[in-house]
Amino acid sequence: MTVAPGPRVAVVTGAAQGIGAAVVDALRADGLAVVGLDLRANDTGDEATAVLACDVSDPVQLRTVIDGIGERYGRIDVLVSNAALGSHTLPDDLVADEFDRVLRTNIGGCFFGAQAAARWMTAGGSIVSLSSIAGTSALGRGNLAYSISKAAIDGLTRELAVEWAPRGIRVNAVAPCQVSTPGFVPLLTDRTLDHGTVGTRMLAGIPMGRYAEPHEIAAAVAFLASPAAAFITGVVLPVDGGNLALNPGGTVGAPR
Ligand SMILES: NC(=O)c1ccc[n+]([C@@H]2O[C@H](COP(=O)([O-])OP(=O)(O)OC[C@H]3O[C@@H](n4cnc5c(N)ncnc54)[C@H](O)[C@@H]3O)[C@@H](O)[C@H]2O)c1
């Protein structure tokens, strides 16, 4: 199949800060032309740094914006679905409105983004979604809507990988533990979460003893997006300092 000449083209959602911004930097360093999308547009007037306005929870808007990028560049090679909403409402208090908003943003954003971008991946491509350790093991403290959205992303990753393998479109996900981002750091001083002790609890679950940095997550995303991962599809890759390897009753580095 013929694709427009030029560098590979990537679309990254939730690109204004945190992991999304780090992914934009990593993909640009790999030589891709990257278009960032976010609720908070950042019109720098420079195509190389601008972040376009897009609400990923709106499938029609997402399709329109992605089609605009496809028409502008003639191709899309990589989609990183990173935009997401957190939720910290206990199951007894969770109302339909919040439940819908979280699932529509986190699952719908990934699925309808993939559906729109895949139409432009005529010569194959790579889709990487941001899952979480919460998709595999339960966090409690009101994470229900968030956690089931991430578990759904893991399922979506496997389903799309199988459906689209014959078209050369690889579909993978990265599952971070806690990452030092503007979305995460305020939780450490939120006294409604475990009475302010949530940071101690979270660190105890990470054998490497620290939170991840955004660039460490972005490096895994860039790898999965790259030709180096040409035979990897349907995978949910933990980037979690050993969090998912650790049994809650296990001991990290037992003294001899
Ligand atoms: N930070 C962590 O500890 C952590 C851990 C595991 C997984 N993750 C996942 O990594 C991804 C990024 O996390 P982060 O901490 O960098 O997030 P963040 O909250 O710092 O930034 C998220 C960005 O997404 C944008 N966004 C939110 N809703 C949107 C929408 N409807 N449409 C478009 N943009 C929208 C926000 O404006 C923001 O710029 C998320 O999918 C998150 O669930 C984060």
Condensed summary:
The protein is α/β, with parallel strands linked by helices and 256 residues long. The chain contains 6 helices and 7 strands.
What is the topology?
Layout: E1 9-13, H1 18-29, E2 33-38, E3 51-53, H2 59-73, E4 78-81, H3 96-118, E5 125-130, H4 144-164, E6 169-176, H5 198-204, H6 214-225, E7 236-239
**Main sheet specs:** 7 strands, parallel
Cα distance spanning the termini: 60 Å
Integer tally of domains: 1
Unreliable stretches covering 5 or more consecutive residues:
none
State the CATH class. Answer: Alpha Beta
Strand content: 5-15%
Specify the helix fraction band: 25-40%
CATH-defined topology: Rossmann fold
Q: What is the molecular shape?
A: globular
Oligomer: single chain
How many E strands?
Answer: 7
Number of helical segments with 4 or more residues: 6
Q: Helix and strand string, N-terminal first?
A: EHEEHEHEHEHHE
Strand order across the largest sheet = 3-2-1-4-5-6-7
**What's the architecture in CATH terms?**
3-Layer(aba) Sandwich
Rg? 18 Å
Question: Can you give a write-up of this model?
Answer:
- The chain is α/β, with parallel strands linked by helices and 256 residues long.
- The chain has a single domain, classed as 3-Layer(aba) Sandwich (Rossmann fold), CATH 3.40.50.
- The protein is 35% helix and 14% strand.
- It is built from 6 helices and 7 strands.
- A 7-stranded parallel beta sheet has the order 3-2-1-4-5-6-7, with helices on both faces.
- Helix 3 links the parallel strand 4 and strand 5.
- Helix 2 runs parallel beside helix 3.
- The longest helix is centred in the middle third of the chain and has 23 residues.
- The chain is globular and about 60 Å long.
- It binds nicotinamide-adenine-dinucleotide (NAD).
- The site of nicotinamide-adenine-dinucleotide has 28 residues, from helix 1.
